[in-house]
Design a protein that fits this description.
The protein has 141 residues and is mostly beta strands. The protein has strands spanning 8-17, 22-24, 31-36, 39-43, 48-51, 57-62, 68-78, 83-95, 98-108, 122-129, 132-140. The mean pLDDT is 96.
Length: 141
C-alpha cells in the first residue's frame, strides 16, 4: 500500500542570497537564467554555518507553463570548518498563495563528522524572497 506521508528528519533552514541573473533567451528548453550565489547561512540541530561566497549558483530554466526548473550547486561551510557540496534539482511554481519551491538535495563531503550526509536523500520546501531564497531541508528517513 502506498505511503500517505513520508517520515522525515529536519536537517536545517537555509537562507541563500542571490545576484541579478544573466539571461539566455530563446534557448531550446526555454529561457535560461544563470544566478550566482554571493552567500547565505544555514542552521539546524546537527550543523550550522555559511554558504561559501560565490561558490555556486542556479542554472534555472523558465518553462512555457510559467514554472521554473532549478539546477543548483552550493558549497556549505560549517561553523567547525567542514565543506559540504549541496546540489539539487527542483521546481518553482506560482500558486494562489505565491511562488513555492520544492527540491531534492544531495550532499557530498569528506569531513568525517558529516559523512552521514553522503547517504541522505533530502527534500527542501521553500520560497523566493527579495534577493534570495529560503528553504527548510529535511532528510527522508
Amino acid at each position: 500500500m502506498p505511503e500517505s506521508s513520508l517520515p522525515v528528519e529536519f536537517l536545517f533552514s537555509i537562507d541563500v542570497d542571490t545576484s541579478a541573473p544573466t539571461m539566455i533567451s530563446g534557448a531550446p528548453q526555454g529561457n535560461r537564467y544563470i544566478v550566482s550565489v554571493p552567500g547565505g547561512t544555514f542552521e539546524g540541530p546537527k550543523m550550522k554555518g555559511t554558504v561559501v561566497p560565490n561558490s555556486g549558483g542556479d542554472w534555472l530554466t523558465l518553462r512555457a507553463d510559467g514554472s521554473a526548473k532549478l539546477d543548483v550547486r552550493l558549497t556549505l561551510q560549517t561553523d567547525d570548518g567542514a565543506h559540504i557540496l549541496m546540489s539539487y534539482n527542483g521546481i518553482l511554481v506560482n500558486g494562489a498563495s505565491g511562488p513555492s519551491i520544492r527540491s531534492a538535495p544531495l550532499f557530498e563531503t569528506g569531513a568525517e563528522k558529516y559523512t552521514w550526509l553522503n547517504l541522505v536523500q533530502a527534500v527542501g520546501i521553500g520560497a523566493p524572497r527579495a534577493n534570495g531564497v529560503k528553504y527548510d531541508i529535511y532528510a527522508l528517513s
